[in-house]
Amino acid sequence: xxxxxxxxxxxxxxxxxxxxxxxxxxxxxxxxxxxxxxxxxxxxxxxxxxxxxxxxxxxxxxxxxxxxxxxxxxxxxxxxxxxxxxxxxxxxxxxxxxxxxxxxxxxxxxxxxxxxxxxxxxxxxxxxxxxxxxxxxxxxxxxxxxxxxxxxxxxxxxxxxxxxxxxxxxxxxxxxxxxxxxxxxxxxxxxxx
Length: 193
Fold this sequence. Notes:
Blueprint: E1 7-11, H1 13-21, H2 28-38, H3 44-50, H4 55-67, E2 71-75, E3 78-79, H5 81-89, E4 97-99, E5 105-107, H6 124-139, H7 144-152, H8 155-173, H9 178-189
Antiparallel strand pairs: 1-2, 2-3, 4-5
Helix pairs in contact: 1-2, 6-7, 6-8, 6-9, 7-8
């Protein structure tokens, strides 16, 4: 678990899902640490500095988050093997996930499909709001089924599955509406949790 070079923590997909939708119902102390890492306090000293909790308690909580795969260790410029195993074991969508040099995770486009997908770091609540608004604009009173699916989706991964269904429906029925949906997806991706 010890890596060469400067050690810092990164959120795994499990950690991102917890922040976005409280999937795992972590307590406030654990969520505070996840939030600090998300906001840029990536090493232990920075977490302790910004946390309101005692150092020993933060250390214990960080160890627990690593063991439970909510965060992973990363040393130097590339993720540690533990981080790669954690990312590989994390729940994924039907599409593969890639991570760019800044650590931003996105869903890989497949085949000829160039329609944008949701950034896994985007705000789930913002995604729900924007997509529900889109469905009301496009489908009017017939949007209730899509809105129920969006609101019932579990985390950003679940919202992406609903978005995939909406995309497939529009692609076959009203392809002229896809450009507006793509614009809404880009708007969602500009938000971060």
